[in-house]
Amino acid sequence: MSKEESIFEFGHSMRSKFLLDSDYIPLNHGSFGTFPKVVQEAFREYQDKVETNPDKFIRRDLIPEMCKAREAVAKFINAETNEVVFVQNTTTGINTVLKSLKYEEGDKLLYFSTVYVSIRKTLEFIRETYAGKVELIEIEVNYPISDDDLIDKLDKVIKEEQQKPNTKIKLAVIDAISSNPGVIVPIQRMIPILRQNDILSIVDGAHSIGQIPLNIREIEPDFFVTNCHKWLYTARSSAILYVSYKYQEKIHPLVTGMFSHEGFVSEFSWTGAQDVSSFLTIHTALEFRKKIGGEEMIQNYCKKLAIEGGNLIASILGTEIIGPESIIPSMVNIRLPIPTSNEEFTEAKFLDLMFNKYNFSVVVFKHNKYWYIRASAQIYTDLNDFEKVGYIVKEICDSFKTM
């Protein structure tokens, strides 16, 4: 659908489609997402439908409904329906893969220093579980860095490890879009390198579906997990786990259910009673996105706003954003004029001011010796939101400079 064909204008006029408070400046869609009112209505309708006849829905309707939802989301990412199952969130999906795989002495697990903290801790859990047998390899990454240099780092580490006796890199966990900083990672260049070196690829795509185009057939990962409740607008929580047919026999839910070892899809279809209504809102979310203009229009608006808004905040602060523009999705990272050596400035203090005094939201994090904020652009935000946040953040930063 072209811009001219859409009857919706992005920006503050879209706020009425969501449940956000009118006096709140929401520049952190990336952390938890939020969903439109129409999705909330569908979510509650599914819950009500279950309760009218729980036994019939769970025993007869649940599996067919889940199959239709999987079919819709699989088509959206160009995967086959039976390559995709629902999980609660990306952390659950990555845990599922890492804890299903078996490890031998000398196995090494590769990841970048920008890995999400929960995934880092999961990798550490694997190392501790296989005490003395499994080693973690962290590739240090500091932005700004070019995609070419990032690929060179990966290639160099793999070659160095191959020279060591009695060891093998078993797998690599890579982000499609890293969390902090929030940047696009060149996974389509990384995965072929991993495959050529017999290294399993586990893609943390928590921020990917709905924020960037996804085509599983082009990416060809071994495993891919992404949250639908962030950028795709489904109800929270909802995520999909893609597993290549080649490895499905090795992957099992974290919770052993009644369909254990009866096939990949069957195992994940029932791990005990739970509310699956959020999974079933995939249809309404996709319909909403199509109605307001479609994927290209949504993603182009958000990326453009992230770049323009990020540069505006940076100009107010006298700093810069992490670039180039090619790695900026719908999130932008702006350096604060506060070095990490400033012991007075803390995340906790920033969040207290953010929530209790100013009523806005961004992510604040440390990277490469400085504090940064990550701001998310969305169809319900505009440049005025970024400008307001820019001056608020400047006021906060100035208060710490004078201490």
TrEMBL record:
GO terms for molecular function: transferase activity. InterPro entries: Aminotrans_V_dom, PyrdxlP-dep_Trfase, PyrdxlP-dep_Trfase_major, PyrdxlP-dep_Trfase_small. The keyword Transmembrane does not apply. Transmembrane segments: none annotated. The keyword Transferase applies. This is PLP-dependent transferase. Keywords: Pyridoxal phosphate, Transferase. Gene3D superfamilies: Aspartate Aminotransferase, domain 1 (3.90.1150.10), Type I PLP-dependent aspartate aminotransferase-like (Major domain) (3.40.640.10). Residues 36-336 form the Aminotransferase class V domain. It comes from Rhizophagus clarus.
